Amino acid sequence: MIWNKNLRPSLVKKEIGASNAYLMFIGSLLVATGYGATFVLNRHYKSFGGNELDTGTVLLAAMVGTFASVSIVGWYSRKVGAANLASIGAVFLAIGFLILASSSEVSLIGAIGGCAIGIGWGAFYLAAPMALSQRVTNEGRSYWFMRFAAFQMAGIGFSPFVAELFLDNLGLSTTEFFYYVSLSCLGASFLLLAFEKREPLQRDTRAIEPWVKSLPRILASPARFPIVMVALGACVFSGVMTYQSSLVEGTGLFASTFFLTYAVTVVFARWTLAELISRLPSSGTVPALLVAMVLGTTLIFWFEFGVAAQVLAAALLGLGYGLVYPLIQAQAVNDISDPADQNAALTWFVFSYFIGVFGFPLLGGWIIVAFGKTALISVVVLLGSIECLFALLRNRSVLTSQALSKT
After folding, report:
1. Beta partners for residue 12, in sequence order
2. Domains in the chain, CATH or no CATH each
3. Most Cβ neighbours (<10 Å): which of 86, 112, 189, 193?
4. The dihedral sign for the CA sequence 49, 53, 56, 61
């Protein structure tokens, strides 16, 4: 078997071949183009008379869909196989974008498509890292999550950039772009199925994983802080990315510039800094990265000063949010003392993320329509600052727990 030394097989519980790992990584890149394409929804609805509220309504339907699929993955991941469920999620994403592509007006059809997208992205977003987490050690989890997240962010970030490029320069419609996204998601489904087949795990005969009952134990542990933090960060991320086309209106800037800068920054940082970041104590790294994220969102106030402000804002957001997400994801799992509750912690972490990433755009759309884009920027800066505070509270909670365990 051929090994890639960069994948550090010494950190895994069982030998994962490089080719098998890349089945997961490339599949994640392809299916992530589906979530990235939601950043084009605002442009899609504006093309036939809709506005930010219509975009937010579709994404709210997506949030409802995620609740259903995340619950199913949380219950049945060990019985069915997490990668198999991620593959099914990719199919639902394809269906959702086919539904959106078939609609050229604001109607209930859009909400149905949004719900299908939510079901698909929710299943993938929990099941794919769960499939990886089940195959690695606690020590290697941050490293592997960082590498996985690099491919995932490549799909998320480059998808809207490619869309803007094609729409502005090649005359492609958003409908046609959504058809291509559907094909990408179907391709991802086959790769994720192949990963599960080539990296099998012993199945759990229990029909239902009791992740809901684990909530009291999770809330009593320091893991409660990263679970709240991910929702706050997701609000910042979705607010800035979903309405980037609105934020650049009247400035002469292009949304594609922000998407490209963000994607390149995140992918480069996650790939080149993964090993270094995984070795540093997250208690210090997480607050520092969140400060960078807040600075990046603050710079959006000065978009009128030109492309330099836009590029710097995107780079700081990419460096901050892009690197901090896999770190707090690992914190949410590692802060649980009982390994039996780790899957449950990851499930609640993803639940919290979807509240922010799909729930906030409706509020953000209303803020823009009612009060303007300056108000939206102010809100996301505030939410990012609150996340910084929670990072410090988590550090204090961990120190307290460690002190109690020694007494």
Report:
1. 136
2. 16-198+214-406 (1.20.1250.20)
3. 86
4. negative
